[in-house]
Amino acid sequence: MPLHLQTDTTPSHGNALQACVASLLGLEMGAVPNFVAAPEGYWNAMLAHAAQLGLSLLKIPLADGRLPFASVPLTRCLVRGDSPRGAHGHVILAAVA
Q1: DSSP class of residue 87?
Q2: What mean pLDDT comes out for the span 63-90?
Q3: pTM of the predicted protein model
Q4: How many CA atoms lie within 13 Å of 25's alpha carbon, on the beta-carbon side?
């Protein structure tokens, strides 16, 4: 599985989400849009991209930094938190502990 790193760190328009999705799905960066730059909004762009691949998405808020239900250890997922570079979000590829 190729691991992609963020190449655009423009505040609130970078491509960390794109890099995470490409890494998670084993795709090249060029096969995944920069969702945060999409005119329809990142979530709608993600849903459309997932649908093209026969996939769907769930957005699950964490409770005290944990999933609110049991999950299989090492299940890969995306986690959003505060960016270390400013007052905007940042996304990382993670695995359930």
Answers
A1: S
A2: 88
A3: 0.88
A4: 22
Quick one: how far is CA 56 from the chain centroid? 13
- The pLDDT tens digits for 19-52 are 999 999 999 999 999 999 999 999 999 999 999 9
Distance of CA 37 to the CA centre of its chain: 14
HSE (side-chain half, CA atoms, 13 Å) at 16: 21
How far apart are alpha carbons 31 and 67 in whole angstroms?
29
Contact residues for 31 (Cβ-Cβ < 8 A; gap 6+): 22
Tokens of 40: 């329809």
Q: Tens digits of per-residue pLDDT, 45-73?
A: 999 999 999 999 999 999 998 899 999 99
DSSP string, 7-65: ----TTT-SHHHHHHHHHHT--GGGS--GGG-TT-HHHHHHHHHHHTT--------BTT
Q: How far is CA 10 from CA 13, 14, 33, 35, in A?
A: 5, 5, 16, 14
